[in-house]
Amino acid sequence: MNKEKEDKRNDEIKELVLARLNVMPPNYKLSVGNKGTFTKDQLIESVKKGDEIGQQIVLIQMNFIKALTSGKLIETLNQ
Amino acid sequence: MKRLTNKMNKTLLITMPKYDDGTEYLSYYASLVEKKAEELNIDKKSFKEGDITANNVSKYIKKKDPKLIFVNGHGDADSLEGDEGEVIFSIEKNINLLRDRIVYARACHAGISFGKKMVEENNGCFIGYKTPFSFWMDERNSAVPAKDKTAKLFLEPSNEVVISLIKGNTAKEADKKSKKMMVDNMSKILKMQEKDEPGAIGWLEILWNNFEGQILYGNEEATF
């Protein structure tokens, strides 16, 4: 995939992550490995900034999308 | 040369740090494993906040030779932590202490290098994560993790690894049972999503991250 397409795809995934985070109720926090615990607003800020946490969240989303589009998630749930 | 018999003590070592929200939850859930071990009359040693140092833990392992080690807390590709900032096991310094043992590390990234190195040329087994072990928590209950039904979706399946082991299952079975619980919880979350629970897809993504990230290296037939 060329750089332009890849950047576009990454932006789309970022938007998807932000959309998911926006609907998360404000009382939920996410503990991410050894990086700490983050509120919804902090996660949104991180994704927009593209910092380490933001990148990690986007990566998690990308892996989830791969699992969804490849059928792996459904296959796993149906085992 | 691999040992054919293992005469280690049937003792469970648990680390329970408590210095941030994440470790507070991990330690609460580790306490449930402690209770289960008590019910099953399993000999155990818990290291709690302030005591989880490389020196204390190493001394105990050399003296008491525990078969199963349950590490809660933070980590990276090459090491596992105890108290805040205190590395208790690392590839560089003392990974050999863990030879032939079963280690479950509820910490992030140790599955990348640490776990693989730990089981090289011995009969040990490592279960851990190659991705950051993550979980959502409901802040309304964060002072009382026991009441947090959201965090339970992530942490109960994780506890199942150790609970299965102390019940006598092999490492492979323990990993499988834990993953089955994660799959069951993913199905529960999907049903919540169908009922328009607003956070559900976000929970599903993170649980999938833990499911895919959970790895087993080494002797999968290892038993406690």
Descriptive key words:
heterodimer; A: 79 residues; mainly alpha; 2 strands; 71% helix; 11% strand; B: 224 residues; alpha/beta; Rossmann fold; six-stranded mixed beta sheet; three-stranded antiparallel beta sheet; 41% helix; globular; disordered N terminus
Report what the structure shows.
The complex is a heterodimer of chains A (79) and B (224). Chain A has 79 residues and is mainly alpha-helical. Chain A has one domain (3-78). Chain A contains four helices and two strands. Chain A has a two-stranded antiparallel ribbon. The mean pLDDT of chain A is 92. Chain B has a single domain, classed as Rossmann fold. Chain B has a six-stranded mixed β-sheet with strand order 2-1-3-7-8-10, with helices on both faces. A three-stranded antiparallel β-sheet of chain B has the order 4-5-6. In chain B, helix 4 packs antiparallel against helix 5 (171-194) and helix 5 (171-194) packs antiparallel against helix 6 (200-213). The radius of gyration of chain B is 17 Å and the shape is globular. Chain B starts with 8 loop residues before the first strand and ends in a 6-residue tail after the last strand. In chain B, 48% of the residues are buried. Chains A and B meet through helix 1, strand 1, strand 2, helix 3 and helix 4 of A and helix 1, strand 4, strand 9, helix 5 and helix 6 of B. Strand 1 of chain A pairs antiparallel with strand 9 (134-138) of chain B.
